[in-house]
Description:
This protein is of the alpha/beta class. The chain contains 13 helices and nine strands.
Amino acid sequence: MEEQEQLSLVGGVSFVVPVHNGAATLRDALTAIAEDVGLSASAEIIVVDDGSTDDSRLIVADLAETIPMRVIRGSGRGAAAALNTGIRAARFALIAQIDQDVIIRPGWTHALAAALADPTVAAAQGWHLRDPSAPLCARATSIDLEQRYLTLADGDTDHVCTGNTMYRAAVLHWVGLFDETLGYGYDNDVSYRLQEAGYRLRVEKRAQSVHRWREKLAGYLRQQYGFGYGRIDVVNKHPWRFNGDCVSPAAMMWHPLLMAAAVILLVGSAPLGLIGLDWQPYFACGATLVGLLFLERVAASGRAWSRCGDVASLTFPVLHLLRDISWVAAIAVWVKRRLTGEPSLPFHSMGAPAR
């Protein structure tokens, strides 16, 4: 009862869950939300189905028999548009945005609502817990992100990630909601705009959740390609963020650029050799760059291993160089589209639109 009164005092919370082919995790995600807020009259769940072709709709219909929720059909124009649809339909002062593959833990809602009791805070993000039973790739992703969040000593940040975050609805409307032209990166964009409007952003360790990351290498690399492509879109819109932010620092941003230089040198040395020119210095320079990037990730891997003792952290040197190559591919495709005048669409980073 006391927790329900607290939700009422903050103006209530609207959970917005954009869904696109989320059958594998959707039931757990929605059930966890319902368990955290109970039957509070100051909370609602809004599911925006953005053209799912798997069993997501059946799962939502089944859960709706026991869990009060509103289901809205999205326009099929991507995650940011689906999220905005849900926000416009929301009744309460706070927007809790949960992704279909994020499972919140008990107390998540109240911990973030408490953080937003400070009127200078526009958004507060929860803390992703590592799932020790998850496959290797998923654990490595979680450890990497955890390493970066641990640098936020006081909890203040300049980027909160949608999918595990609570926002002030009025401030989101004031800054113009999420940019529907963006795929991956729309959370970075709105974070930067909230800060430019004079608000603070927070990460709260008490608000815990488990993110079901991509489990297989192919899925991981596809997602990293999308992250890289989306990041270029964001930097194109916010050039002063070329060096990244608290969550994606300069070292991470420069990795794919140095890998791109290495690839150019290594690939470019081959035709030089074929026509009898001196190719060895270019090859050596490219190989040296790759070696230095590898050694930097070995050091990061060692730090992660000493902290958590999870064998998945030892995959950083290989996994993150493959991530760099995925980003290099994204850069090449983005530049090609830019040069040919093709407009950038959210599906370029987040997958094909619904049919």
